[in-house]
Amino acid sequence: MATAGTTTTTSKVAYLDGIRGAAAFGVYLHHFCLIFFTAFFTFDVKASLVGGLDNRYGHSVFSFLTNGHFFVCIFFVLSGYVLSRKYFHDNKLETLISAAQRRYIRLFVPVGIALILSYVLLKCGLYGNKKVADMTNSQWWFGGMWNGVTYPTRALFESFFFNTMLNGDGRLDTTLWTLSVELMGSYFVFAFLMFTHNTRNRGFSLAMVMLACYATSHFHTLDFLLGIALNYSEKSIDYKKMPFVRRIGVVVMLVVACVLGSMPTTFLFEGTLFERLTFIFGEHNRQFAHPIGGFLLVYAFTLSPGLQKIGSLGIFRFLGRISFSLYVLHPLVFGTATCWIFTHVRSGPAYLQAVTITFIGTTVVLIGISYLYTKYIDDFGIALASKYYNRFCKKAN
Fold this sequence. Notes:
Distance between the termini: 27 Å
Number of helices: 17
């Protein structure tokens, strides 16, 4: 199925992978800044080690570049879009059943092994986060990782197989709070499409469910529904007949997405631009800024062949290829390689120089490990999920 622009299915997959890769790298940048430029998030000028520059950056519209929650919302919107895209193409229930049957195993294999790795590193005393946190004023976040984490045998088993996947237990890996959201959101997508299969006015049903999510502040569920909505838009609106509207729309969407994506997750923005934006969502619904921003950013890419070419560049496609591994592994790399590098270079150069060296070293290590993890663990999980479905679940001919 071609996109609303002029690209083919192949290039479309490529640029979607590119968005995913850039978002994963954005989460990595976010967490790196939480360690070394903590004032960009807490807005505590006294904690800044760079003269308050990180605090001012955090209050600027450019902070969307390292807004981790914004990038997580982009992940969820992409999931809703990609998981429903094939169904919109072939309109077969078997497509949904196959994806639903394979989903848990596909996610669990790389996550479970990452949990085992983290547990081994913890038990071997290889995490150096406390020492580095004291040096960077990130005691509140980095210093608290893995603190007091003890697992009796049964609890360890439950964490590996259930708690992380179903309850978002992130004690061994802080990023994995999102796994329960991703898993439940995926099944919500499958369930909605199954219940509305070949029914009339499915778009209206989707709009009603989205409105219910907004009214009840289920903003992450809305992410997945917005992904489904992108497929409805592609099927119902032919933007090729409105090139001017498409170009203007893409620019507006990108600008609004960046502004909404830069809204501080902590909502500590008194006296700033973001304070004026709260009236749009209301005091209790401003957390919808990031889901809507993520939706608009992905929507802009689906409409713009130029943006799709950028997203299809080799570097972004490579990041997309290793994105899941990069996402689940980077906290483990922070606790080990990053701490080792920083403690060895901090005594010599100035702070910014030491952080720059640490960032380069961390990035090289992380990308290398993520590539190997993708090749030998993540790909194995995908293959295992397919074998499980074909062997035990696929409908007999």
